[in-house]
Amino acid sequence: MALLLSAQRAAKAFENFRLSKFAKNEVPGNYVHPEQVRDRKAVQDTQRKSITAQLRKLPKTDPRNAGVTITFPTAKLDEVRKHLPGVSENGGEVKLDALLAYLGARMNGRKFYARGNSTLQRLTTSLAARAQAKAMIERVKKGPPHAHLATKKGGSKP
Fold first, then answer.
1. CA distance 81 to 89
2. In the beta sheet, which residues pair with residue 87?
3. Which of 33, 58, 86, 137 lies in the 20 to 30 Å Cα band around 97?
4. Of 11-15, 18-22, 98-102, the least confident
């Protein structure tokens, strides 16, 4: 009897189970069936529908973050004010062109961090990875440290 009840509970628990990425009869709007992946028109139509739906939603959507927070040491406030007019101790308004010029001159791929915006996070991660890759390539090009002191087999110097 207990075995029958257990089997019935298991059957009920798994009655809606499907070995699929998506819930029953629900696929995301940007889904392209594997049989249609090579059909450019099907892919373009799906993308067009998805983009159009997002564009229709855009005017009704409030931005999550209407501003950007910039932090720097208070000792550098005068220097920052010189490059970014409008900055004050408690906020202010800065033109985007001036901000990008200021940041661009001081950015080397390792000092610019973003939190909250996945696109910015991806870009900063990419910049950091590129900087690390360049550094590794340079180290490989220069060779191992003290390579000029290496000896051949037998113990004699080249």
1. 10
2. 92
3. 58
4. 18-22
Q: Is 34 helix (H, G, I), strand (E, B) or coil?
A: helix
DSSP 8-32: HHHHHHTTT--SSSS-TT---TT--
Sign of torsion over alpha carbons 109, 112, 115, 120 = negative
Does the global pTM surpass 0.85?
Answer: no
Which of 115, 124, 1 lies closest to 64, judged by CA?
A: 115
147 falls in which pLDDT band (50, 70, 90)? low
CA 21 centroid distance within chain: 23
Task: Please write down the long-range contacts of 59-63, taking CB distance under 8 Å and 24 or more positions apart.
Answer: none
Model pLDDT for residues 46-64, shown as the tens digit of each residue: 889 888 988 888 888 776 6
Same domain, 73 and 102: yes
Q: Give me 21's structure tokens.
A: 């990425």
* Structural domain that includes position 127: 109-142
Amino acid letter, 78:
D
